[in-house]
Predict the structure of asparagine synthase (glutamine-hydrolyzing).
Amino acid sequence: MCGIVAAYGVIDPEKCERMLARIHHRGPDDTGRVQLENAWLGHQRLSIMDVSGGKQPIADDTDSAYVVGNGEIYNHEDIRDVLSEVRFATDSDTESAFRLVLRDGSAALHEVRGMFALAMAHTDGRGAVARDPIGIKPLYWARLDDVTIFASELRAFDPEDQPFVEAFPPGHVWTPGVAGNDVAEGAIVRFADAVPVEVRPARNAPDKQWTEEDLGHIRDVLSDSIRRHMMSDVPVGVFLSGGLDSAIVAAVAAKVAEEKGERLPTFAVGTEGSADLLAARAVADFLGTDHHEIVPTADDLEEALDEAVTVIEHFDPALVRSAVPNLLLAREAVKHVKVVLTGEGADELFAGYEYIHDEEFSTPDALQAELVRSIESLHELNLQRCDRTTMNYGLEARVPFLDATVMRELLALPAEWKLKIHDRVEKQLLREAFDGMVPYDIIWRGKEQFGDGSGAKDVLSALVEKEKAKEGAQDAEPPVVEHGWDLRSDEEIAYYRTWHRSFAGVRPDRTLGAFATA
């Protein structure tokens, strides 16, 4: 996990250095850069794989091609086996993807499994910039007159460049032109869909209930993903909310840690006596983890709220509210580990949100389409909040539910199995698959929003009213957001004003998403 900056075309090294300095928090362990005639690559490193030897940029054998990367390539060992003739310079997972593209071209990115944003450059003007298919790792770009620039966060860009900044689309690769002044122009193509194409149609099974074999398959697929996501040369922990999804991740991860002779660190946040804190404690006791609790005061929550909007680079109320406990959790966790696993993506795969069970999505085809749509939009919502709150403190968050194999297998299940019919509760399928691996009360615990279960809701509501009053005193007229973005509530207006102070030139319609309600 790291932060990257890349530029192609007419290079301004001072601009690139400024951009890189603004994302130092993403990789406080080391800084690296390389400048070529028509390209500049910069890297802030958080050392997780090949701690001693994985410094970036990484060069090829002849120092004619370079790469910087943000994220993790989980099948990097498999790639190395395929590239048996290649002499690798490091044990870095980023180098595996780099060498594969050098040999087979950018189309080979379809074979790379993981979360990543990669930027490559050659001395002859060629290059490539790519983002993983779901957009787990952030990447933004601005196409200016004579240069195209990329960065891991919005805050990296100079104010005068903000109006041109867009979210780089997941599953795409950009290659620069190589003729004269066309270097910055380039071309962009898709190399993979967020959700594998073959699982988009719903599979109907109206008269068939799932079997123990089906449950075992779900358990095996998810357990394998969690194991692979624990790939690291540094300690790995789990964010434990006390809900179903993170409890499942913790249960499998605790077994993996035990096999290594280690004890899994887990982290929970909540006000004293809150439902999430008590539930997480029960899971930790059941699994025997090395458990850490963060019990914030009202002052702690107010401090986190003040910075949440700027940190997550978003003003959607649902994201801001959940970012507050996440920030406190990350700040504590980074004292103990450099990597955490989370339960992001489970609700999208198993129809965990209440709105999904409305009449609008009551047929298998409608439900399947909505699950796919919600996964495709994660990069500009939940995953943005997840990445920024952790990387603000140099902590890497991994999301095993969003592994490509997991999505392919679990979205291929009959969609009607995920409907709340025949006295089922939401995510009944997932609950039954892991019944017995975590406490019974947790497996069958109802879903709560993170801010609600952590006990932060009432405190945050009071703080929001305080923020609204303060902002209202400064400007009685509600702000106008150009380009068709409608502010949907007083709370969102208050957060937007905070966001606008840092990102005044950024167009929300090109960089952000929004939940259905504010």
